[in-house]
Fold this protein.
Amino acid sequence: MVAVAIGGAAGGLLRTALGEVSSDWPWPTLLVNISGAFVLGLIVMYGRRHWPGALIAGIAVGGLGALTTFSTMAGELWEFLDSGEWGTLASYGLASVVGGILAAVAGLRLGRAVR
């Protein structure tokens, strides 16, 4: 439980700092979601074999849970839809979903390959 709180505090602080980055395109949200998917994949394959459960929970549930953000992505997609920015809506949605899946697979494969 303490590990999740510590991880959540760290992930939340990092997410808040990245949220301050100003951009016309939602790069900060895309970055945290894709990197979070990669790290989660890595933890699932590598961490389960080598780390205690509390550390995994601290990083995966606390840290990555606070760092990544589906709700912000959904809000940004809604803003693009509402303003008729169809190209940005499609490219951001596709980059988020496909990028997240590819990043998770890469993390899983790396986690499996590293002994």
